[in-house]
Amino acid sequence: MEIFDQLNEEQKKAVEFVEGPLLVLAGAGSGKTRVVTYRIANLLQKKVPPQKILGLTFTNKAAGEMKERIEALTKSHVLICTFHSLGARILRESIGVLGYKKDFTIYDDDDTDRLIKTCLQDLNIKDKAAEPKAFKSMISKAKNSLISPDAINKDDYTNKLEQFFPSVYSLYQDKLKQYNALDFDDLLYLPVMMFHEFPEVLEFYQNRWHFLLIDEYQDTNEAQYELVQLLVAKRKNLFVVGDPDQSIYSWRGANIRNIMNFERDYPGATIVRLEQNYRSKSNILEAANALIKNNDNRYEKSLWSNLGAGELIKYYSADGDKAEAEFVAEKIRFYHEQQHIPYNQMVIFYRTNSQSRSFEDRFFLKRIPYVIVGGLSFYQRREIKDILSYLRIIYSGADYISFVRSINLPKRGIGDATLDKLRNFSELEQRSIFGYCQALVKLDFLHHSLKLNVKQFEGLKGYVELVERLKKISHESNLSTLVKETIQLTGYLDYIKEDLETFEDRKANLDALIAKAVEWEATVTDPSLGSFLEELSLKSTLDEVNGNNERVNLMTIHNGKGLEFTLTFLVGLEEELFPHANARDNHAAIEEERRLCYVGMTRAKEYLYITNSKHRFMWGTPKIQRPSRFLKEIPSEYVEKVNSYDEYPYRQKPTFKPHYPEKQEETVEEKPSSAKWARVSFSSFTEKTSIEPDQTIYKEGDTIFHKEFGIGLMKQVYQGSMGLTYKILFSNDGKERTLIAKFAKLKKL
C-alpha cells in the first residue's frame, strides 16, 4: 500500500524529507501526528533500521498513540517516548559514570519537599519564609536552565530568602546522590551534564539514534533544547514539528526562541507549513487567524478548512459570574438534549482554576455530570503514595524519603528526632538507611549505635522484618502479588479503616493499584518492580483523562492543549483575568496570553461560545470588569451576540462591540431575586457571624457584607437627608445600592 495516499501536498513534502534539519510548522488540527507517523514509516520503507530512529513527545499518552499507529502501519517497533522517559532510559544505562547506581529511585513533589525540609534543618535555616516549595521552584528553574550548584552566581540572589538558595541547592543535590535518588528535573539535567563531561558516552548515543523526530518543539525548555542539539550534532538529521502560535508554557520553562531560531541553529534547514485544518469550521479558524495576527513574534501562516463555514461564534456578556455559569449550563443542557451532543464532547475553558467554582455550583444544581481535568491525580492520592513508598524502600534501601513515609504506617513510635538521628548515624556509618536499621535491630557492631527505647526498638525491628519479607516476595513472585501482599502484610487496610467515611474510596483506589500492576505485567516486556515504579513516577494527571466518560470537561486552557471538542466555551474574557493581571505592561507576556486564547478557540470543532462577566469578585473585592482586548481583535463578521435565554440566539447588528458595563443603581427598598445565592455562597459566614447594627464609619474601598444583598464594595460615603449614607456596589447582581448607615446592618470583611 502506498503510504502517502491519505496526505495532502504539504504533508507529503514533510513525510518524504529524509536527511538534514526540517521544521514543520503545523497549525492546530493540521494532522501533525499523522505527518510524524508517516515520516517514520517512510524512513522504515527506505530501509532505515527501526532501532536507529527516536521519536520524542511531551506526554505518555501522545507517545503511546504514536507508537500504536507506527506498529499498525509498519509492524515495526520504534522507540517513541517522552523527554523524561528518554532521560531515565539513558541514565539507567550510563549513570554509573556520574557516581550513581543504576537502581536509583525517582522522587516526586512530596519527596523533594521532604528532602528540602531536611536540608533546611541541617543548615539550621529557621526563617519562617524558607518554605521547601520556594526552594524547589528555584532548584527546578536552575536545573532546567542547566545551572549546577557550583555554577550558581550568588550575586543573582539578593533577598534574604534567595541568599539561602546556593547552600540549599548544593546540599540537596549531595543528598540526592547519597540516597541514590533523582528528582524529575534530573532526568534532563543529568544526561546533558553527562554528555558534556563524557564525550564518549554522548558519541555512543549519537551512533545509536541516527534520526530524531520531536513533536511540539515550541514547548521545549533549555535542557530539552540542549539535549536535542547534542544528540543530533553529528548528523543533523532532526525533524521537528511545532507551532509558535501555540507556545503557552513559558511559566514552566518552555522557550519560544527554540523554534523561532531553528533556521539560525541549523543553517539551510527546510521549512514546511501545514495550514489545512481538519478539525474546525471556517468561521472559527478565520476568527482565530485574525486574533493571532496581532502577535509580532511568530512565523506567518493562515489556517483554512474545507469543512464549511459553520455557525458564527456566539458571544455572551453576563451581569456576573453566576449569570455566566447559568448561561453556560443552560446551553450545555440544550445541546445535549436537543442536538444530542455527548457531554464528553463539551468543554469549558477558563484562565484560572478558581473560575471553576461557579460552574461546579450550577452543574451540581442542574445535575449535569462534569470532571475537573487536571485535578488530583490517581498517583498523587495518599493511599497510593503510601503503598508506593513501601515498594520503593523494597526496591532501594537507600531511599530515605520513602523510609520516612513508610516507617510509621502504621505508627511505630519513631518520631522526627529519632528519624534525624537514624539518618545522621547511617551517614556516619556509610550505610543505606535501611541497611543501618537492619544492623541496628540485629545488634551488629556499629561505631555509631543509636539507643532506642523498647517501643521504638520493637517497632523498628518489626518494620525491618516486614520489608525483608516483602523483598523476598519481590524476588520469588510477580509484581501484582507483591503489591497485593504489601497492602495486606503492612496492615494498611486496618490503618485506613480508622476513617470509615473514606475507607471504601481508598480501598477502591488500592484495588485499582493492584489492577494496574496486573495490566503492567501483561503489556510490557520487562514487568519488574523498578520499571513499574519508574512508569508511575513519570505519570501525569492528564494521561489519566478518560475521553469516554460521559461528563462535561472543565479545565484551564493550558490543560486543553492537543484536545478537541464539538462544543467549546471560552469563558472569563476580561482584562486582568484573560489576559491575566500578571501580563500587565509586558508585551511578550501579552503575546503569550493571546496565543493561549488562540489555542482555546482552535479546540472547537463546530460550536464556539465566548463569554465575559461585567462584574466579578476577584482577590477579595467585587470589581467592575472590562471586556478583554482579545474580543476587539476578533472581526465582527465571525461573531453573533446572543441573549441569555434564547435557545436559538437571534443575530444582532453586524458590528461586534463588547459591552462595557454602566453602573446600575438600586434603592434600598429593592430586593434582588438572587439574594438566596449570597446566603448559600457565604453560608459559613452567615452561620457563624451575628450581623448586628454597628456604628462603624466605613470608607470608600472597604469590602462589606450585607445579610440580604451579600458582599459589596463601598463606593461612596456621604451625609444625606437621613444622615450618614453609603453607596455600595454588590457583586452578586452588579447593582449599586444606596443604604442609610443607621439601618444598613453591615459587617466589614
Give a quick precis of the structure.
With 749 residues, this protein is an alpha/beta fold. Helix content is 44%, strand content 15%. It has 30 helices and 23 strands.
Identify the notable features of this structure and list them briefly:
single chain; 749 residues; alpha/beta; 6-stranded parallel beta sheet; 23 strands
Question: Can you tell me about this structure?
Answer:
- The protein is an alpha/beta fold.
- The strands form five sheets. Strands 11-12-10-13-14-9-17 form a seven-stranded parallel β-sheet, with helices on both faces. Strands 3-2-6-7-1-8 form a six-stranded parallel β-sheet, with helices on both faces. Strands 18-22-21-20-19-23 form a six-stranded mixed β-sheet.
- Helix 4 packs across helix 9 (186-197), helix 9 (186-197) crosses helix 10 and helix 14 (282-292) runs antiparallel to helix 26 (587-601).
- The longest helix is centred in the C-terminal third of the chain and has 24 residues, at 500-523.
